[in-house]
Specification:
With 258 residues, the protein is an alpha/beta fold. 45% of the residues lie in helices and 16% in strands.
């Protein structure tokens, strides 16, 4: 999969995961081979250098898996570099207003849609020195994926105006921060939380945009899908490693002759 937006239009519901701690450039290939559609390289909570992200992004581009980067903040330096290294899209955390969403778009799009600086022949163009910059700018403006995170009460309140921003492709619902902001951390069965999640998912679908969400268990995944989610992010690489290691060592120690 190289184009999430097109895939979703065709009825596909992409499944991805977070890489947020382990600086192993091969991880996107591992997840591609496992059947995931995309990875989120997390630099909001992660501590990856630009060089590490460049390596991960380029391996993803050669492995038929979409590479999204969660940015630490709405900032020209990091957003521009992430696009220039070849990221397929960005996820922007803590977007509470339409104005914040519009700024993220402006930093991501070439004129006339935005004010992204010009740099070619880099990872964004697969290092084709003879590539067509004008064609690339048009392609990037059309295909670059921008998801803004809804993870606060304020963001949910402003969801319709945020979704109305031209260039915002969809919402990424963050349950941990949303439940915490409500004073209901981890209480995903709470009626107010469930009503908010449902309202956000339905608002995105009604606007004709992507309704994405982080999920860490099958019940939450089923809830978001019922509410209209058409893109899910399952867990993190460290959680998967821990859970598999704990399961396997427990199985070994449970053997009869151990």
């Amino acid at each position: 999969m190289r184009d999430i937006k097109e895939a979703i239009k065709n009825g596909v519901k992409p499944v991805g995961t977070f890489i947020w701690d382990l600086p192993a450039a091969v991880l996107p290939k591992v997840f591609a081979n496992a059947g995931y559609d995309y990875v989120i390289l997390d630099n909001e909570h992660g501590c990856f250098s630009y060089e590490t992200l460049l390596n991960m992004v380029q391996i993803a581009r050669g492995s038929d898996i979409v590479a999204l980067i969660r940015v630490p903040k709405i900032d020209r330096e990091c957003i521009q570099r992430y696009w220039d290294m070849g990221a397929d899209g960005i996820i922007v955390p803590m977007v509470n207003t339409a104005e914040q969403a519009a700024e993220a778009v402006a930093l991501s799009k070439y004129a006339p849609m935005g004010r992204r600086g010009l740099a070619f022949q880099k990872g964004n163009m697969d290092y084709h020195v003879d590539g067509d910059p004008v064609a690339y700018m048009k392609y990037s403006n059309e295909k670059g994926l921008i998801l803004v995170q809804c993870e606060t009460v304020e963001s949910a309140k402003n969801i319709d105006s945020i979704l109305a921003v031209n260039g915002v492709d969809g919402i990424f619902f963050g349950p941990l921060d949303m439940s915490g902001d409500m004073g209901k951390f981890g209480r995903y069965g709470d009626a107010v939380f469930k009503d908010t999640a449902s309202r956000v998912m339905k608002a995105a679908r009604a606007a004709g945009k992507i309704a994405a969400a982080f999920v860490g268990d099958l019940d939450s995944a089923a809830d978001r899908l019922r509410e209209g989610a058409n893109m899910l992010a399952w867990g993190t690489e460290t959680a998967m490693l821990f859970n598999a290691a704990k399961r396997d060592v427990g199985s070994i120690r449970a053997l009869e002759d151990f």
